[in-house]
Design brief:
The complex is a heterodimer of chains A (about 130) and B (about 110). Chain A is mainly alpha-helical and about 130 residues long. Chain A is about 70% helix and about 0% strand. Chain A has 5 helices and no strands. In chain A, α4 runs parallel beside α5. The radius of gyration of chain A is 26 Å and the shape is elongated. The chains are: A mainly alpha (about 130), B mainly alpha (about 110).
C-alpha cells in the first residue's frame, strides 16, 4: 500500500520526526553551498544535487589552483636559489604559465599532468645543480 | 539522472492544475497537522492528505474541502496506466525527501525516533 511505501522510505536508520526542523537543517546546508533561500524552499528539489556537485567541483578546482600556485612559488624560489647561490644562469622561471606550451590546442589533463611532472623534475635537477656547485 | 520533480497534472473546471511538492509545501503540510512520524498509523487517509498537500505549491487558494472532493473523484476513476493516484503521491513525497537528503556533505544528522 502507498502508506507502507512512504513509511519504508522514512523508517531507515534516520527517521524523520519533525519535517520542519529537518528541512531547516537542510536549508542551512544548501545555503552554505550556494543555493538561494527561495530556490531551496520553492524551487525544484531535483536541482539541489547539481548545486552540490558544482560546489564540490569548485572545491576540487580551488585545491588544484592552490597546488598549482605552490608549484609556481616552488619554481620561483628554486630559480632564485639556483641563480643567486648556485650561480647557475641556465635556471629560469617558466616563460609562460604551466600548461600553456601548446597554446593553439588545449592540453588534455593527462598531458598537463605529464608536463607538470616534467617541470617538477626540472626543479629537482635545478636544486641538485645548486647544491653540487656549492 | 532525474532533473525534474514528478508532478501530477490535470484539468479541473477548465483550469490546468499542477500538483507537486516543494520544501515549503512539505513544511506547510506539517504546520497544518501532517505528522510524518505517524504515517504508518494513518494508512487509510494518507493518500488524501498527500493529495491535499500537493496543492500548496501552486493552488493553495483551492479550499481543503474542494481538494478532498477532487481526490475522491480522481481516485474513483484513476486507473490511467500510471497506477493508483495514491501510489504516485507516495512516490512524489518519497522523491522529495530522498532528493533533499541525498547530499554528500559532512553534515551529520541526529534524528530521534
Amino acid at each position: 500500500m502507498e502508506g507502507d511505501e512512504v513509511g519504508t522510505a522514512l523508517s531507515n536508520e534516520e527517521k524523520i520526526t519533525n519535517l520542519g526542523e529537518w528541512l531547516d537543517k537542510f536549508c542551512d546546508y544548501y545555503m552554505a553551498i550556494g543555493v538561494s533561500f527561495d530556490e531551496f524552499w520553492y524551487g525544484d528539489y531535483c536541482r539541489l544535487k547539481y548545486y552540490e556537485r558544482a560546489y564540490f567541483n569548485k572545491l576540487k578546482k580551488r585545491d588544484y589552483d592552490m597546488w598549482l600556485s605552490g608549484v609556481y612559488v616552488y619554481r620561483a624560489v628554486s630559480v632564485a636559489l639556483a641563480r643567486g647561490f648556485g650561480g647557475d644562469k641556465r635556471a629560469e622561471y617558466p616563460k609562460q604559465p604551466l600548461g600553456y606550451e601548446k597554446p593553439e590546442e588545449q592540453m588534455s589533463q593527462k598531458e598537463l599532468l605529464a608536463y607538470i611532472q616534467q617541470q617538477l623534475e626540472e626543479e629537482a635537477r635545478n636544486y641538485a645543480r645548486t647544491h653540487r656547485s656549492k | 539522472m532525474k532533473t525534474e520533480r514528478t508532478k501530477i497534472q490535470f484539468e479541473w473546471e477548465g483550469k490546468p492544475l499542477t500538483l507537486e511538492y516543494t520544501a515549503d509545501s512539505l513544511r506547510k503540510m506539517e504546520d497544518r497537522g501532517f505528522d510524518v512520524s505517524e504515517i504508518d498509523k494513518h494508512l487509510l487517509t494518507i493518500g488524501e492528505t498527500l493529495f491535499c498537500g500537493a496543492f500548496i505549491a501552486h493552488h493553495d487558494n483551492i479550499s481543503e474541502s474542494k481538494r478532498r472532493e477532487l481526490f475522491r473523484e480522481i481516485s474513483a476513476f484513476a486507473e490511467d496506466g500510471e497506477g493508483k493516484i495514491e501510489d504516485t503521491l507516495a512516490k512524489m513525497f518519497q522523491e522529495a525527501i530522498e532528493e533533499i537528503q541525498s547530499h554528500r556533505g559532512n553534515l551529520k544528522w541526529r534524528v530521534t525516533r
